[in-house]
Amino acid sequence: QVQLVESGGGLVQPGGSLRLSCAASGFTLDNYAIGWFRQAPGKEREGVSCISMSDGSTYYADSVKGRLTISRDNAKNTVYLQMNSLKPEDTAVYYCAADLAFVTVVAATIKPGILHYWGQGTQVTVSS
């Protein structure tokens, strides 16, 4: 069964850190690009970051540059999102998604678009 599974979400205080994971099963991510997206209650889905599994190219939304770092582990078929200096406005359900073309995932990060595979999401809550 082909699926993406996010994990690592939780409750954290402002200024804290979390590392999210996106693990793929049923297919290999080597030829894919992976994006992280988030959606807060009552808001549109927002692209956060993406990475090419083949060459490690990355893209970050301006709102998260310097605080979030995306990385990959091809051997584990997993992508990570390290989130530091978290703010209450980072509170959202975080999703990962995969598609074959890096440019497609980058485009979806900038403006909502259709990607091939989506995970079920993991909740991140930043609150004191």
Written description of the protein model:
- It is a single chain.
- With 128 residues, this protein is mainly beta.
- 7% of the residues lie in helices and 47% in strands.
- It has one helix and eleven strands.
- Strands 2, 4, 5, 6, 9, 10 and 11 form a seven-stranded mixed β-sheet that branches. The protein has a four-stranded antiparallel β-sheet with strand order 1-3-8-7, with no helix packed on it.
- β4 (33-39) and β5 form a beta hairpin.
- The longest helix is centred in the last third of the chain and has 9 residues, at 102-110.
- The radius of gyration is 13 Å and the shape is globular.
TL;DR?
The protein is 7% helix and 47% strand.
How is this fold's topology laid out?
Blueprint: E1 3-7, E2 10-12, E3 18-25, E4 33-39, E5 46-52, E6 58-60, E7 68-73, E8 78-83, E9 92-99, H1 102-110, E10 117-118, E11 122-126
Parallel strand pairs: 2-11
Antiparallel strand pairs: 1-3, 3-8, 4-5, 4-9, 5-6, 7-8, 9-10, 9-11
Annotation field: number of helices: 1
The largest β sheet comes out as: 7 strands, mixed
Class from helix and strand fractions = mainly beta
Can you count the beta strands? Answer: 11
Dominant shape: globular
Mean pLDDT metric: 95
Q: Nearest-angstrom radius of gyration?
A: 13 Å
Helical content stands at: under 10%
Low-confidence stretches: none
Written as H for each helix and E for each strand, in order along the chain, the element string is: EEEEEEEEEHEE
**Gap from first CA to last CA:** 39 Å
- β-strand percent reads over 45%
